[in-house]
Specification:
This protein is α+β, with helices and mostly antiparallel strands. The chain is built from nine helices and eight strands. Helix 2 packs across helix 5 and helix 3 packs parallel to helix 4.
Length: 276
Amino acid sequence: MLFDLKRTTQKTEEFERLPYTLPVALHPDRDLADLAKALKLPAPPQRIEGFDISNISDTFAVASMVSFKNGRPDRANYRRFKMRTVEGQDDFACMAETVRRRYTRLKTETASGQGGKWSNVPDLILIDGGKGQLNAACAELEKLGLSHIRIIGLAKEFEEIYQPGESAPLRLSRDSGALKLLQRVRDESHRFANTYNAQLRLKKISESILDEFPGIGEQRKAALLKKFGSVHRLRLARVEEIAKVPGFGGKAAAELKTFLEARSRLPPPGMAQGEK
């Protein structure tokens, strides 16, 4: 699995993996005006924040927040979250935790009067999901005294827009600039959440190689990862650096270094020597 994940990001002689790009918004100002009209907003929303959850097979529950300014991605204000309080596969609880953490930070920085990277106030919040996800987010905003921020949910199956206090969803034309803008925000939040989930899974698979080192134990494994941050950086470390980690001496450090170097030369499971 580790080999498969890495192989999908490698360059080949025939093709070069290009950076992901969103569909280009040809008329962002017009799309924003259409959105304001469709949602009966007082003005086109200059800043939109979109949220999505990625929770695959009950592991690595994470969330994303993307930011669009004037209809275009504002990547400097993207944020990602690893769930702290949610157990199991519960998208509603994950959405509640994410919204609570993001806008608690907003209130904290606003109260300090100094601003900060969390202090932007969105004109519109977009939740990826239907009534359940939207209600979970609305409840958290209400607790924080931020119910005045406009929030909607976009459900994938029929591209229906759910709004607080409205029993029936809003359906816009598939050709609507407003809907296409919401779809761009939703799809970008989905991509960002899934990318973070994949990074964590790849890191976990990479770290599992340490379990094969005889007598490693959870405490020494944790100490190594705390010191070096990743198996990749551990491989690059000198024996003297490894020996300074609690639970390791010169002999154990040298053995671990030899072990990692040997493993890095082995082909992935199921691949013959010389195969690429």
